[in-house]
Amino acid sequence: MSEEILIVAGEASADMHAARALEELVALRPGIHAFGVGGPRLRAAGLEALAPAEDISVMGVAEVLPRLPRILGILRLLARTAAERRPKAALLVDLPDFNLRLAAKLKKLGIPVVYYVSPTIWAWRKGRAKKIAKVVDRMLCILPFEPGFYEGTGVKARFVGHPFAERPPPEAPDRYRAALGLANGRTTVALVPGSRPAELKRLFAPMLEAAERIKAVHPDAQFVVPVAPTLPRAALEPYLAQHHTIEVKLVDGRTEEVVGASDAAIVKSGTSTLESAIMLRPMIVVYRLSWLTYALGRMLVRIAHFGLVNILAGRGIVPELLQGEASPARMAAEIERLLGDRAVRDAQLAALREVRHSLGEPGAPRRVAEEIVGVMS
Fold it and tell me: What's the CA gap between 213 and 219, in Å, rounded?
């Protein structure tokens, strides 16, 4: 009977990171079988999906409540299946509200838990580190400053490097434009609205309205949008139908290439900002939450910046537009600064190079796989 491992990954970035780790794990332990929850990339890497990632990939109180019965049902299913099949280890990727609850159940079963992509204890609820120590055997961090927050808590934390560190340096924009079927020589702006339906609902319409304003200043402008693997193209069509005057090209996935093809990008906050930053293209970060989630966040979160790129840099190198500030007018104005002010553009690009360098050495997926092998009995 082959060895088994449980893997749970939610949103698109976690799905991608987990898929690469599983590929490396299979190379180290041929014949290993993975089951759990994942998206298209993880399933393509060989995961036996008990439920799709889309069913647990929700964010914010307002979004979670209607889906709670289904989410709790999946949690019970995973715990029950783990008890029956007794995997050698579990790899839980990001999604702390779900995965830490599952980790507690797995700990009671004696199943070693490797947690990949640390919860943001440095932003809020720092006391969680001691609770995490009770249910997690290894914490694998992808940001260089994170292990320090676990010192003295009992958590065995390690910076394994960021998965994006293995990406090659970006090429010239015309290379990506040719690959994506975009015209060269035209003003090109990338719109990256996110991987969740709620993000699409709140961000895509104002992004497209900003695109209208940009086109008014740059009549030759073309726009390109990466469609996350967790979203069907049809989900974007109603928004595009309201904006016939702008030229928008949809691309399945390939966020890096989309940003690489651009002169500037409007990017939703999250992993997408880092995925965009390593392409060394000027960008702005935007986000909108439900009023309830935002109100709770204002009370709990104590950080100077919300954009991951700025957090890594330790300063505001990229404009951040949150809630009402993420208006079409502000988005368009900030993009115009990046397109028209050479000094502003060059300063941001220099800072983005620093951020890319901070991600560590290539090989994070292999290091994750080695950690999993290390806890397997």
Answer: 10
